Amino acid sequence: MNKITDLFNIKYPIIQGGMVWCSGWRLASAVSNNGGLGLIGAGSMHPNTFREHIQKCKKATDKPFGVNLPLLYPQIDQLIDIIIDEQVKIVFTSAGNPSKYTTKLKENGITVVHVIANTKFALKAQQAGVDAIVAEGFEAGGHNGREETTTMALIPLIKDNVTIPVIAAGGIANGRQMAAAMALGANGVQIGSAFAVTQESSAHYDFKKHVVDSVDGDTILTLKPLTPVRLMKNEFCIDVEKMILKGEEADVLRQFLGKGRAKKGIFEGNLVDGELEIGQVAASINSIPTVAQLMEDIVCQYNRTIDSLVKL
């Protein structure tokens, strides 16, 4: 047992990232049923769909699960009400100020975790009363910190500045990387990319296969004038980079991005025009396993790694 397994009442300190267009009830319940903490990704769901996924997840697992809630979501108040009404017990918040909703969530008996990428917001999250934080490094897929601090640099820095449990994220997909994160001081890990390509993920098969076929250097951190996002390189991404080099203003980039780019790429499998959010660890992912297989591999490799370090 450690602080994270105690906090969430789970077997392993492994949390599945709440990824848009990947993290529906099937993925979340499978992770929870296999000893981790599954998260439903609210960022890609309308309120009614969100409620449906929570209800289906309740039926699919009797283990703890949670939701990931981007605080900049346009219908955030509706989602908060659904969370309380459905008695969800764990909420991971991101992309916004945690002080606005943490108190209300905790008053309703909900454990709150906030995602940060620097010391300033780690301290703000702690001051807001969250129960733990996710410290996400530059390697992570999707929306990213502007400081571009790597996980290896970020985790010990955050650990030295807060008193609440720290969950490492970014660049973690296997047991060796989990062991490294724990050695840096993390109390647990959050894994996104590896779960995004499991069989239970709601991502399109073509997207999963594209990730499996990728090599190092196939991702890039782009869209910095708007908000940094790590993507797989494709024609859409190349066009964005050309526009940035030309000095196009944020409004022009925003108009070109439009709506539904991530859905088009991840959920619909459009590998040319879609936004293919994934982390740098994509290059080391070489199969599309079940969640059960992935969890077993992570835990076994973690234990072997710890044993080998003890021998040193």
Characterise the protein shown here.
The chain has 312 residues and is of the alpha/beta class. The chain has two domains: 3-202 and 284-311, Aldolase class I (TIM Barrel), CATH 3.20.20; 212-281, no CATH class. Helix content is 42%, strand content 15%. The protein has 14 helices and eleven strands. It has an eight-stranded parallel sheet. A three-stranded antiparallel sheet has the order 7-11-10, covered by helices on one side. The model has no long low-confidence stretch (mean pLDDT 96).
Name the features.
single chain, 312 residues, alpha/beta, 14 helices, 11 strands
Helix content: 40-55%
- List SSEs in N-to-C order: HEHEHEHEHEHEEHEHEHHEEHHHH
C-alpha geometry: globular
CATH architecture label name of the largest domain: Alpha-Beta Barrel
Low-confidence stretches: none
Query: How many structural domains?
Result: 2
At the fold tier of CATH, the topology name of the largest domain is TIM Barrel
Radius of gyration: 18 Å
CATH class membership of the largest domain: Alpha Beta
Q: What's the average pLDDT?
A: 96
Largest sheet: 8 strands, parallel
Sheet/helix structural class: alpha/beta
